[in-house]
Amino acid sequence: MFWKQGLVLLFGILTFFLASPARAADWTHPLSFSNAELSRRDFSGESLQAAEFSNANMEFANFTDADLRGAVMSASVMTQVNLHGADLTNAMVDQVNLTKADLSDAVFKEALLLRAIFTDVNINGADFTDAVLDKAQIKELCNIANGVNSKTGVETRDSLGCQ
């Protein structure tokens, strides 16, 4: 359990330094949608690696099959968002309201999901391998977990460590 807390700290430190304006001039700046109004926006199939969506309103947004690896979606509203088939490997999705979201067939490998709200979500076939979740979240998600991720071949229940 302590290694997960260390991973969270390391991820936070890396996010801070990678998002810092003092980066080397030859680094490309990731897309930033922080504090943006993005409700009902269609991002389906887009490459949004390392994009920042902190404090954004993404209610009803469509991220179907989007590449969100390493994206930061911290403290955002994502109610009824469509993340079907999206890749959120190494993403930071903490303090996010995912009520009634479609997370089916999404990949959350090594994603940070602490304090995310998972009320009435569809996680059929989602892969949470090595994702950072608290015990209450895991218990809640295990109650509805089923299916196999079409990209990774991992069963949702196995990726959550359900009993």
From TrEMBL:
<dbReference type="Pfam" id="PF00805">
    <property type="entry name" value="Pentapeptide"/>
</dbReference>
<dbReference type="InterPro" id="IPR044213">
    <property type="entry name" value="At2g44920-like"/>
</dbReference>
<feature type="signal peptide">
    <location>
        <begin position="1"/>
        <end position="24"/>
    </location>
</feature>
<protein>
    <submittedName>
        <fullName>Pentapeptide repeat-containing protein</fullName>
    </submittedName>
</protein>
<dbReference type="InterPro" id="IPR001646">
    <property type="entry name" value="5peptide_repeat"/>
</dbReference>
<keyword id="KW-0732">Signal</keyword>
